[in-house]
Every structure is written in structure tokens, then in C-alpha cells.
Design goal:
Length: 479
Amino acid sequence: MIAITIFEDTTQIVATKKKKDKLEVKSLISFRSMYEAYTSKNVDALTSCFMEIAALIKDKEAYIVLPDDKFRLDYYYYPTNSEKEADIDKFLKANAVDTEKYYYSLPFSLKSNTFSFKTVYSIEKEYIDAVLQAAKAADFLVKSAEPMSFCAVRYKNTPKNEAYIFELYKNSASVIMYSPLGGLFKMNLSKEYALNNLSGNDLSDLLLLVNTVAKNKFKNITGSADIYVIGAKSSVSKITFAHESSRVYKLRPNGSLIFKKYTQTEIDEYYIGLGTLLQEFEVTPVKFIKFTVANVLPNAVKETTKLIQIEQDVKKITRVLILFFTFVITVQAVFVYYLSGIEVPDKLQNDFDYANRQITILKKEDGIIQNVKKSQEPVGPIISEILANKPNNNELGFTKLSIDNTVTAKNSSDWIKMSLVSTEPVKIQEFVSNLSNDRFKSITLTKMDNAASAGINSADISIAKDIKETKKNTDKKKE
């Protein structure tokens, strides 16, 4: 985000970036004055200036700072603490603030339990409209338009301390007084204090005059305030307050700033612009005052700006996501392309296919075993003996195993049935031979197939049970 501060003799541009809870200063630029174009409401001249600024810096999120000479500034008694729009409108009308003709802001309120004093900044709409029209033509997103005096008070960040802000121009002069007990009040000075008419550099007599007037016009200020002087740099640097030099405000590092690239002297030259950018951060709180923002942009512009900002943020996030997924897809495509160029040796491919077939067989075999184990019959010893005689798993496997303890003498051959597969027929024969013993006396090889193309042999085996006629087994079949 950038601040564009319009002085009478120059335009200052401050480019910054939010970094957590601080403002990092990125660039400080001095540009030709826009003051004449601004005061004459010359949209074409203002547009030309904004176009040139746009060419200097990429950031288009702009905070405009305007001289106080075109602002009306006063503080008024507010008989309530209501923040309702109807009550605010009534308050403004009672104090001759024509909202049809002026844009306004209420940046300062001194609160009590039942009433408050409110500071009112107001400016003719034509000045702001001209700036907005020119900024829009240069594609700037204007988020704020504040007067210099309020930016100075904010940068100081000591709202409990009083301040005199002298603004001296070639043909006019004014002083803005700030008090935490009243707010802000503007007093126009006689033309003898305008820079073109100023005869001496010592303004001690002016300070005495201001104190005298303040006793009648702005009684809340004590007269011992810090002193700021704003105006043409070449002239302001020569002005002194001989008898009150200790009160002339010496700028110091603001804790909300990061400025690694610049010295304190360089920062001091641009403190007004930095003051408006600090509106993005909370000001030091004081319980009895409300210190907010002096942004005089119309509400419609503020709302539109918020919507545009949200849209831009969404687009920015979308662009980041698109870039991320594009990167991921590119990496995947390169990876797939790389893999597609790798040739797998025939032997390795055959071993892989054979391993997959064996895994399938083992899974089936394991499923059979697990089902048989769940049987209510004491079949554990039978299974253990069958497996003890089985060759290596890579040479022979089961596709089916059933044990039926309900068999009778008529169908005793259905006691145990097995289906086997093997890469070598001899392994099936070896298994049958090994299995023959007192428990498994009658073993029959009921089927033998050879699938030459697949290199797999299959066989079905049936084992009959030795049934004693004096005892019937009524157990359930387990398979």
C-alpha cells in the first residue's frame, strides 16, 4: 500500500508493506507537486500525475493525504453518546455541516456518561470527487483520504499530549490545535504569516497570539503543547520559535514501523504519509476518548473499495492455487514420462507375474485355513498334519480344503477333500505319498489337469475316514 501526500511544493510517495503487526517501509519517493491541480479541481492534470505515479510504482492501493487549508475543522458539543445515523445527521445539521455539499469525518470523540464532544472534518465534495476520478483513470484503488493534521497526530502516537500544528502556505496560513480534552480545532491566521508575506523566521509572536485566541475559542488547550510546522520544505526548515525551541516536536522512531533501508532523518521527511498508513493499526487506547480515522471518502466509495479489495484478494489466492496445481501436474507429468521410458527386463517381468500368481494362491489358502480354524470340531491336529507334509509354498498350494466330520460309512470318502495347484506334477505325487499314514489310510487322486500355457498343474484329492459302526458322529460339517 502507498501514501500519496500532496504538499504545496512537492508530492511525497511512501510505499509500504504489512509485516505482522508492523509497517515495513519499502520506498520513499519525492514527486512533482499536485497541489495546484488539486486546489483547482483539474481532473486532467490530476490524472496525468496519477498516471506518472503509476509508472513509478506497482502498488495501486492508495491512501491520499490532503492539506488542511481546504478543510473546515471544528469541535462541537454532542448531547448524546448515540452512534445512530439519524442522531449523527441531526447533530451535523445543527452545526451547519451540509452533507449535500460536504464530505465529512468524525475521527475524535471525548466521551462522558451522557454526552461527548465530537471533532468534525468537512470538505467540499468537488475536491474529493476530482481526486477520485483521476485516481480511477490511473487504476488506483483509493482506500482513504485524510487531512495532514490528523496524520501528524496519529504518527506521534501520544493522544494524551496536546499539539499545535502550523500549516504555512504561499498565500495562506492556519493552525490546528489538538487537545485530548476537546479534540481538534482549526484557526485561520492572518495573511502576514503566509510564506509569501512572512518577514522573519522567528514565529514566537505568532505562538503568543494563538495562545491568546485559544483562551476564548478553544479553552481545552493549555498552551504548552508540542509544535509542528508543515509547509514548503525550503521555507519551513528556516522557521524558529526562539523562546519555545524545546517545544518544537522532534520526531522519533515510531514503534509500528520497520525501516531498515532508511535513516531516521529520511523517515522524518515522510512522517505525514506514514501517519495515514498507520490507520491500519490500533492507536494507543485512551479510555475517555475515541480516536479513529479522519477518512472523508463517501460511504459508497468505502463499501465499493472493500468489495474490490475482497475480489482482488480472491483473485490473488486463486492465482497462487493455479500456479501450485500447475506445478504439481507438471511434476507428475515429468515423472510419468520418465517412468514410461524405462524398459522392464523380461525375466524381471516374468518373476513379477509369477509372484502375483503365488500371492493369489496364498491368499486363498490362508482364507481356507482361517475358515477351518473357526470350526467347532477339533480339526487343528488334522490341519497341522496335512500342512506338515506339504512341500514348500512356492511349489504347491491349496485352492480348497474341506473336512466333514459328519460322514458315515456310506460316504466316508467325503471326509477330507482338497484341490491343489503346483508348477510340477511330481510335487503333487510327493505330497500324496508323504501324507499316507495311519490317520490317512485311503487317499485317492480323483483329478489331475495340466495347463501347459500357464505352467500350472491342478489336482483333486479325496481322503476316506475310518468309520467305526458302533459310534456315530453327529457333528456339523465344517468347510
